[in-house]
Design brief:
The chain is an alpha/beta fold. It is about 35% helix and about 20% strand. Bound molecules: iron/sulfur cluster.
């Protein structure tokens, strides 16, 4: 399975199973008393946000992280003094019986790194700013200049590698999309290719020094960029380097609340589903202790694939879970794993809304009230559709109503009569092939839930021929273990297409919705069928956090891969939470922006202002601005590269001081924090992006 990489024009294989789960086996790397990679469980880590010179506060936060179950704790080390203070922090923690491995987070300072490596189990180096002193300029590099700078990097980085090797300390080469070196940007741009090359340059130096205790990370606040960068790294590093090194996964500056959890789960989960990832960190603009349970909730399912055999955890590497069986003779991927392109589908009108083609990805929810209680059902439908709100509001665009028998159809007709004005936003679903044709004249969309063993004969298909209604065929894969939904749906789609039907949509309901839908898209591509695909997530009984995480992984990954023309969520959440979940998933995948996106960092010892409080204040004032991306960074260590992803930036530049950005450009430097929010709003206004709140 090969894909052309944009910049180099070379074909690059993506060496992971895409229709089934199998964890990538990696070189095991030590972290003091524990290790990761190999057959080890996927670890959960976090990072302190105290000043590392503040021993008491840092020790206290480490203790709270330890009590929350955090397996690896990272501390920022801006200077040699901070590095030296790691000794005190470590001693105190060890005295208290806290043996959690510590990681020193290094940016810029080789001196801080050389000292910190003495007191930690792992050292994180950012190849974007280590030994290069990035100026964030856009100057061009000649080949000679490029190589000269690389030599300088080798000269400064090699002593750290040697020292880490001698001390038995492992190292993470942690690339960040927002802080690539000028040299890398000059050649590759702010791109996944640049992120990967930056890491490989450092890894080559490590291997030249016979140092193999490495792991990688490729973080970005843009979930799609992050996914593409990790995938590309795996493809290139595994082909070139001596070992398959473990991966630390994370979405940087994910924000807070549901949005932060959904973004993190989507980026991390997409890669875990690919079998990638050996340790994770969920970055939230909240108390770091909150990150730990979210992390464990994300990795739980994957760690359950580990079986204990004898004394050693054993990963059933040959055990394949998913829809990979019987994919033979197909070599093309149904999407590009290294870059975004929306799957091509034919557009169709369903009432007032279009689906497929270039249309917005639509949002549908399921009414829970039975059709046998029409008044309550009507109220629920109106609550979900919220017809009183403006067109582009966050509300369900379609509501699904289930019918099971002829009496239900009569009740439906009465219900629709009472919903004049919104009836073209009602979808009716049934499992009854006898009822299905009768429903077509009533609404703009009808769904047939196909179960295993169903065969739709010519007589049935002939009844559909003259309908203008959009017909969805959905395979319910809850208990099926033999038939592959994709093959059944593709057969149905081919029959419909052969009969000249064009207003057809397809979907799968499965606990493995990602693999099943991917597989469906593959079959459709091979058959040359471009019917739109609805991404359906159903989990009626799960707890709130589990639903957020799993829906972000199962549905969100598909949208990141360019698959999906509609999202339908069916959960036990409150109707408004369900709608907001669907829009949050589309927003995190950057396919449909419906509100302001806050790219806020989690904070660390470099933070210049109270992040949580400031983020809340900024949110209060600008949350109503649809589609705007606002970066809120505690410092500029990640560089204006991160600002390229944001429309406006609010960045700590010193104690009580803030710099403001428009795109990548710093337009206000070092202003007093007290006036910065008003000035930010003024900038938004000057740039024509301000709308007064309703
Ligand atoms: S951007 Fe935030 S988390 Fe990153 S180094 Fe600066 S303060 Fe720390």
């Amino acid at each position: 399975m090969t894909v052309d990489i944009r910049t180099a024009g070379q074909a690059i294989d993506y060496p992971v199973p895409l229709y089934s789960y199998r964890r990538r086996y990696t070189h095991e790397v030590g972290f003091g008393e524990i290790s990761l990679g190999g057959y080890q469980p996927i670890r959960v880590e976090s990072m302190t946000n105290t000043h590392t010179m503040d021993t008491a506060a840092t020790v206290e936060q480490c203790r709270r992280l330890y009590e929350a179950g955090c397996e690896i704790i990272r501390l920022t080390v801006p200077t040699e003094k901070d590095a030296e203070n790691l000794r005190n922090i470590r001693e105190q923690l060890r005295r208290d019986g806290i043996t959690t491995p510590l990681v020193a987070d290094i940016h810029f300072s080789a001196k801080a790194a050389m000292k910190a490596v003495e007191f930690v189990e792992n050292i994180r180096v950012n190849p974007g700013n280590y030994a290069t002193g990035a100026k964030f300029s856009s100057e061009e590099y000649t080949d000679a200049e490029y190589l000269a700078e690389l030599d300088k990097v080798r000269e400064e980085f090699s002593p750290l590698v040697k020292k880490a090797r001698e001390l038995g300390v492992s190292m993470r080469i942690g690339t960040n999309h927002g802080s690539l070196s000028d040299r890398i940007v000059s050649r590759y741009g702010n791109s996944p290719e640049g992120m990967v090359e930056a890491a490989l340059e450092f890894a080559r130096i490590c291997e030249d020094e016979s140092y193999f205790d490495l792991l990688f990370s490729m973080k970005s606040s843009n979930v799609r960029v992050m996914i593409h960068a990790y995938r590309l790294l795996v493809a290139r590093a595994d082909a070139e380097l001596r070992h398959a090194y473990p991966l630390h996964l994370g979405v940087t500056e994910a924000g807070d609340g549901d949005e932060g959890r959904i973004k993190s789960a989507m980026g991390i989960g997409a890669l875990l589903e690919d079998g990638l990832g050996d340790t994770i960190r969920v970055s939230l603009t909240e108390d770091p202790v909150n990150e730990v349970p979210v992390g464990f909730a994300i990795v739980r399912k994957y760690n359950e694939h580990l079986q204990v055999k004898g004394e050693k955890a054993y990963l059933a590497v040959n055990q394949v879970v998913g829809h990979g069986q019987a994919v033979s003779g197909h070599t093309a991927l149904p999407f590009n794993p290294y870059g975004y392109a929306r799957r091509s589908s034919c557009p169709m009108q369903a009432g007032a809304a279009s689906i497929g083609g270039d249309s917005l990805q639509r949002v549908e929810t399921q009414a829970r009230t039975s059709i046998t209680d029409p008044d309550a059902l009507r109220d629920e439908i109106l609550q979900r559709l919220a017809p009183e709100l403006p067109e582009d509001s966050i509300r369900s665009e379609f509501v699904n109503v289930s019918v099971g028998c002829v009496e239900d159809v009569h009740a439906l007709e009465n219900l629709l009569a009472s919903l004049e004005g919104v009836r073209d936003r009602i979808v009716v679903s049934t499992v009854d092939t006898g009822l299905f044709p009768k429903l077509l004249p009533l609404v703009s969309r009808v769904r047939l839930d196909v179960v295993e063993g169903e065969s739709l004969g010519t007589g049935f298909i002939d009844q559909l021929a003259d309908s203008d209604t959009v017909m969805e065929f959905c395979f319910i894969h809850e208990n099926s273990s033999i038939m592959v939904p994709a093959e059944v749906l593709c057969r149905i789609a081919a029959k419909l297409k052969a009969k000249g039907l064009t207003r057809v949509c397809l979907s799968v309901v499965s606990s493995q919705g990602l693999f099943a839908t991917r597989r469906l898209v593959l079959e459709l591509a091979n058959a040359g069928i471009e019917f739109p695909v609805a991404v359906r997530y159903r989990n009626r009984g799960g707890d709130r956090s589990g639903v957020l995480i799993e829906s972000a992984i199962q549905a969100g990954t598909l949208f990141c891969d360019g698959v999906g023309d509609l999202i339908a969520v069916e959960t036990g959440l409150k109707p408004e939470d369900e709608v907001s979940l669907a829009f949050n998933i589309l927003q995190a995948a950057r396919v449909r922006m419906s509100k302001t996106e806050f790219i806020s960092c989690p904070g660390c010892g470099r933070t210049y202002f109270e992040l949580e409080k400031t983020t809340a204040l900024i949110k209060q004032r600008v949350s109503h601005l649809k589609g705007l991306k606002i970066g809120i960074m505690g410092c500029i260590v990640n560089g204006p590269g991160e600002m390229a992803d944001a429309d406006f930036g609010y960045v700590g530049s010193g104690k009580g001081r803030v710099s403001l950005y428009v795109g990548r450009e710093c337009v206000v430097e070092n202003m007093p924090e007290a006036d910065a929010l008003d000035r930010l709003i003024e900038l938004i206004r000057q740039n024509g992006k301000w709308i007064d709140p309703a």
